[in-house]
Amino acid sequence: MDNIVRNDAWLIGGDFNVIFNMEETSNAVNSGIIPDISDFQRCVEELRILDHQFMGPLFTWSNKQQDTYLACKLDRVLINSSWIEAFPSSVVEFQAPGDLDHCPSLVWLHKGVPIAKPKPFKFFNFWVLYHSFMSIVEESWQSSVGGNLAQVLFLKLKRLKSYLKELNMTHFHDISGQVQKKRDDLLCIQLFNLNDTAAGSFIKDELEVE
User: Fold this and answer.
1) Helix H or strand E encompassing 158
2) pLDDT classification of 132: cutoffs 50, 70, 90
């Protein structure tokens, strides 16, 4: 492996399907997997790699079973010493799994201050079922605007977006906002359940939100 990697910065990450030590599981370790743990430890030692420090929960997977809850750290990001020298400001974050089985891991070579970005516009198909949908679209679209053809199209689409947002807020009780809140609640509960100090404490709440 040294002949391949040499002194290059090296990072390897993903689902290794095995824990590295006994503290990386919410339950007692089954004796049947101890050989797998030993093999993994030996591999990491021989490759002279180590875990990148990370933000987020210790556990990255759970079986989501209320009566027999189990959470483990199966996902990790491993680096060599050359990576530390080349990217001393790199950051690893494990996020809530959301719809996934495992926590996704994000790697930044340098994590700066978050930049506020405009929220993307979402069109909901059920809007067209509203009895006045076409009238709203026609009212918005037929009002004249100035400019060349490209500017006219842009301004009409922009205005139509505000009309549809108003429709969503007034007649559909801001369904997009409700969906986003539900998702935010789910992600928060998932992170709490994957925390090693409270593993699975709110698995019932997680399953209800899902």
Assistant:
1) helix 149-171
2) very high
